[in-house]
Amino acid sequence: MNIKKNKYSILFAAFVLLFSGSALANEVVHGWDMTSSTVGYFSLAIFALAYLFVMAEEFTHLRKSKPVIIAAGIIWGSIAWVAGQHGMSVEAEQAVRHNLLEYAELMLFLLVAMTYVNSMEERNVFDALRAWLIKSGFGFRALFWITGVLAFFISPIADNLTTALLMCAVIMAVGGDNKKFVSISCVNIVVAANAGGAFSPFGDITTLMVWQKGMVDFWDFFALFVPSAINFIVPAAIMHFAIPDVKPDASGEEVHMQRGARRIIFLFFLTIGTAVSFHNFLHMPPVIGMLTGLGYLQLFGFFLKKTAYLDRAKIDNTENAGRMGDVVAFDVFNPIARAEWDTLLFFYGVVLCVGGLGFLGYLGMASELMYAQWGATSANIAVGILSAIVDNIPVMFAVLTMNPEMSTGQWLLVTLTAGVGGSLLSIGSAAGVALMGQARGKYTFFGHLKWTPAIALGYAASIYVHMQVNSAYFTS
């Protein structure tokens, strides 16, 4: 039923676009401020409609990339129509090409990072960590803190979604029958994963966007380490007392990393170093360094494929004989194929939609309201609260497109708030949405909402600590 409604919405939008051409063409362009025009209102409505489908993904099971990709095409199609009527086709083309270039750099960067994470997963790196935690025999309270701390430190390297799913698997395996423990631990994991991603240029798409845009230097991001840690520790300390003081039986599960796993981890760090070096020393886009690092992995993958006989020689018992990774040689294109393509394509739709609204003048209007009237601090705090409801990617891209005049401290503040603000609600981040599915019936929207006051306290504390500890950045 929902898919059918989506088809009707698309047909209706296409109908409006097709038959309202004369009305759109009659709008008068004054400095290309189209915020009060038919095409402006139409584009806003299309984006709002698309985002309603994005927010309803959990219920409709319609992948979030589909509506925003269609919306991007409709928005820029209507812009091109009006621009053509007023001799501004070249300006519109240049604007959309600029957005495409920004998207291409971020998409390729993320694709390489996802490929490395998938390669480590294929080599059983994460499974080995999960098995070690399960068999160690930690109590519930110890496991609550261990999974939280690991989520905090793994998410700056891997993405917060992968990190949260890994830690949740541990929680479910150890305390799956204890609903209270699983629910609170999942809340803790979501908060920790989002907080950990906020202090690293690689920890979240939003931090990556800020770094690649040149708003904050690579090493300056780590000034957010203490505020991010506060954001995690404050609610965790409050939730700690609600965790049952129980020690479950240890499991005997044992998983070994496959050949080459440690070298792939090393190559990943080498790739990050290459990207940073290209950006800081050669003044080239970081994506060039990341793609060079993909070459490292491809060469090593070639070595693993040529020496696959060493893997097959290990198959000497029935326990290992059924493991696919031991039978099939490593192929770098398999991890590439398993990248989060829905996320990458969603990012395309968001960049183009927000870019189109910016071209029409809406982002300039929002920037005037938020950063000129409210002030940078209030605006940046509001960005974090908004990201609990709306995905932080379009919110941050909108801020970057507005490009308000701010100090490094304020750019770090909006990076922090956009990264951790999604923790306020379970639907505010990809990690929260994923865990509601993985721990269905145990970790829920209202179960998370119960701890929102504690999370909000951590949110406020992290902002206060940032403004105190990093006060020097607010003058630069």
Give a structural overview:
The protein has a domain of 69 residues. The N terminus is likely disordered. α3 packs antiparallel against α5, α3 runs antiparallel to α19 and α8 runs parallel beside α10. The protein has 26 helices and no strands. By secondary structure, it is mainly alpha-helical.
Short structural summary:
This protein is an all-alpha fold and 476 residues long. The chain has 26 helices and no strands. Helix 6 packs antiparallel against helix 13.
Q: Specify the overall morphology.
A: globular
- How can the largest sheet be summarized? none
Q: What is the straight-line distance between the termini?
A: 54 Å
- Quaternary arrangement of the chains shown? single chain
Number of strands: 0
Task: Please give the radius of gyration in angstroms.
Answer: 24 Å
How confident overall, as mean pLDDT? Answer: 82
| Total number of helices | 26
Strand content: under 5%
Q: Regions with pLDDT < 50 over 5+ consecutive residues?
A: 1-31, 317-326
Helix-strand sequence: HHHHHHHHHHHHHHHHHHHHHHHHHH
Helical proportion, percent range? over 70%
Overall structural class, as computed from helix and strand content, comes to mainly alpha
Topology (elements, then pairings):
Layout: H1 2-19, H2 21-25, H3 38-55, H4 57-60, H5 65-85, H6 89-122, H7 125-135, H8 140-154, H9 160-175, H10 179-197, H11 205-212, H12 225-240, H13 261-280, H14 286-306, H15 309-312, H16 318-321, H17 324-327, H18 333-337, H19 341-360, H20 362-374, H21 376-386, H22 392-402, H23 408-420, H24 430-438, H25 445-449, H26 452-469
Helix pairs in contact: 1-5, 3-5, 3-19, 5-6, 5-19, 6-13, 6-14, 6-19, 7-9, 8-9, 8-10, 8-12, 9-10, 9-24, 10-12, 11-22, 12-26, 13-14, 19-22, 20-21, 20-22, 21-23, 23-26
